[in-house]
């Protein structure tokens, strides 16, 4: 009896598998799923684009600020350098004048 | 898997082609229509984020199946953890939810099979869904589930036996073709 049942079961298996395959056919996706997914994907891409736009703007501002800052700093250094050179020239002129004056004074003293 | 160098993934086309596969997999794995819809949406959006990594239509199909199974397993784990915290049985909950599933468009056998499927262990359910819904061979299922082929074959055998045993008590009229 048990043996008969097993034989029957084995014969039924392909039929059960066939019915299982039919019963497990894919279900239709819910209405609106695609629309919702596409809308969210679009929103995400737009968000990403906005983020990139912001990053680009921030990067451009940083580069511009660095360039302006660099130029200002260069100008300042250049002015200091020029000032130092002018000071050096004045000191040299004063040294020459001082030396000349001492020579003149020495000559005057000799003539007296 | 075919590698197609000139293939460019089109997200809208991929969603159109695979939404029913992703939804059906999630539905049969979780047994919860609302959760399956949410999972399908998450998986498809994850595909959009990973579109650059998809190399061919076959790769897209494989990727979607694998990610859907993983996400469904995660969702079931979370549900089980919540149920344990709240002191409810997730399988009882799943069976109850199945009671509310749409039945209009489905055959009685289809609905009953889905109900019975939800009572099987997760790995057996996954193997059976991939075998009978997706028509994959045990070797393909093994690759998708990242399990040895022998394990998949035994899961299929055990799952089928269990499903048939449970079905025979309630679905005699359908199984025997009556």
CA radius of gyration of chain A is: 48 Å
Largest interface (CB < 8 Å): A-B, 26 and 39 residues
Oligomer class: heterodimer
- The structural domain count of chain B equals 2
Number of helices of chain B: 9
How many domain regions of chain A?
A: 1
The major pleated sheet of chain A works out as: none
Tally of strands of chain B: 0
Share of residues in strands of chain A: under 5%
Q: Share of helix among residues of chain B?
A: over 70%
Class by alpha and beta content of chain A: mainly alpha
Rg of chain B computed from alpha carbons, rounded to a whole number of angstroms: 17 Å
Rounded mean pLDDT of chain B is 83
H and E string of chain B = HHHHHHHHH
Please mark out the parts of chain B with pLDDT under 50 across 5 or more consecutive residues, or reply none.
Answer: 98-105
What's this, in brief?
Helices cover 90% and strands 0% of the residues of chain A. With 112 residues, chain A is mainly α. Chain A has one domain (29-111).
Which keywords apply here?
heterodimer, A: about 110 residues, mainly alpha, about 0% strand, disordered N terminus, B: about 180 residues, Arc Repressor Mutant, subunit A, 2 domains, 9 helices
Give the SSE map.
The complex is a heterodimer of chains A (112) and B (178).
Chain A: H1 2-23, H2 33-111
Chain B: H1 11-30, H2 33-49, H3 57-86, H4 90-99, H5 108-117, H6 122-132, H7 138-145, H8 149-170, H9 172-175
Helix pairs in contact in B: 1-2, 1-3, 2-3, 6-8, 7-8
Question: Can you offer a commentary on this structure?
Answer:
- The complex is a heterodimer of chains A (112) and B (178).
- With 112 residues, chain A is mostly helical.
- Chain A is built from two helices and no strands.
- Chain A is rod-shaped, with a radius of gyration of 48 Å.
- Chain B has two domains: 10-101, Orthogonal Bundle (Rna Polymerase Sigma Factor, Chain: A), CATH 1.10.1740; 107-178, Winged helix-like DNA-binding domain superfamily/Winged helix DNA-binding domain (Arc Repressor Mutant, subunit A).
- In chain B, 74% of the residues lie in helices and 0% in strands.
- Chain B has nine helices and no strands.
- The longest helix of chain B has 30 residues, at 57-86.
- Chain B is globular, with a radius of gyration of 17 Å.
- Chain B starts with 10 loop residues before the first helix and ends with a helix.
- Chain A binds chain B through residues 9, 12-13, 15-17, 19-30, 33-34, 36-38, 40-41, 44, and chain B through 11-12, 15-16, 19-24, 27-28, 33, 37, 40-41, 44-45, 48-49, 105, 107, 109-110, 113-114, 128-129, 132-133, 135, 160, 163-164, 167, 174-177.
